[in-house]
Amino acid sequence: MEKNTEKKTTSAKLNAFLEKNRKGLLVFFIIVIVGLVGFIAYEVFNSSITNKGLTAIDTISYELTNKAVGLDDAELTARKNSAMEKLNPYLSKGGITGVRANLLAAEIAFNSKNYDDAINYYNQVVSKGRKSYTAPIAYYNIGTCYEQKNDLNNAAENYKSAVEYKDFVLRTHAQFSYGRVLYTLGKFDEANTALQELVDENPDDSWAELAKTIIIQMKADGKIN
Prior knowledge:
The protein is an all-alpha fold. It contains ten helices and no strands. It has helices spanning 2-20, 22-65, 73-87, 95-111, 115-128, 134-148, 152-163, 171-184, 188-201, 206-220.
């Protein structure tokens, strides 16, 4: 009996609370609903902007490469200049849009042998997507740019950064390049460590086979034990 009375009392108190605060609760739920709708609209809006940006970059890439074989240097240069002009608004964007824009800009710069510009664009790719699959690609290509500039210390540093991404599809190539550059720099012990790690981890890989030849050569030359 006491329990029934207690339940009725609790129910009465709850009803009284709801009645008393009905307007306040209604406002609260309206705020929550409006906020949720706003959040969804924001996400859809952002997604729409991202898709438009990516579509624009794909179009720029297509216009740059479509039927490019056979064009003379002047025509190719004109296409590159046009592409860079159209890419410019997207280079400062965040997220995948900025990453894709800077990747394309870096490729254009690299193919034009503007290695300093390419390095800058690739660094933007890293900063905008450090945890993305594009980061090790950018590090690897930065290493290649520095090799073209004959700056082997920076080349080695960036190849090493690419190697640190365990799921990088070109990891064995990057690891070989890292060891090869260290060998060229005369850092034989470090080169041996990097190349031997490649051999131990991926003994059947083609880059591991090349690594073995450098290790054998260093031993033959008395550079390592």
